[in-house]
Give the backbone structure.
Amino acid sequence: MQVESAALSETPEQIYLRVFRQLRPRSPLPEVRIEFCRFANADSYVRIEERRLSVRMADVLAGAPTSVMEALANILLSKLFRKPVPKACHHRYRLFLNRKDVRRHLHLVRQIRGRKFLSGPQGEHHNLVDVFEELNRRYFHGLMARPELSWSRGASRSVLGHYDPSHNAIIISRLLDRAGVPRLALEYVLFHEMLHLRFPAEHAGSKRRVHTWEFREAEKTFPELKAAKQILKAL
């Protein structure tokens, strides 16, 4: 019981020193400096220089339980020293971030602090509003409210599109606005992102499921699904 009480009263600095000692038992203990920052996400960073361990983490984590802070310390320091991260720590940390109240808080923080680059829907060859409204009539009976639509800064090949729920925005890669890229590819990517509005991510325990069963079934209604995916593979 005394051990539990001691653990509960630990400061974040003491937690990092304890985890450091577990991972580097023969190294001298560093000076620990922890800074809670006004990040737009639950981001955390760690570095060590001249026996000073500096940790910068989002202020939304300031009130996290000791067990969660310890799990994050294990994650950050294990990565810093290139050691395997304990699965239990990953699970505990994801479980905390997946809590409904934490998700709601993070959503609000992203809305207030997050910056979203929006170039607008008009591209060189396509207007996203026109494509959205056509898909809306074709697959959603014209009932889907239009979010912010924009082309990305660059022509990304790794992320062809994404939906940002915090800013209610769909961003499409400029790669799909190039001459020679079939319109079918753009229609499918935008349709895919529209499905994220229709079927939000599900949360259960430490898991976050973005593509639910309902999402996958709805995606199959796209008549030229196979042809569109072949075009994207070629890109």
Observations:
- The chain has nine helices and eight strands.
- The chain has two domains: 2-113, 128-234.
- Residues 183-198 form the longest helix (16 residues).
- The mean pLDDT is 88.
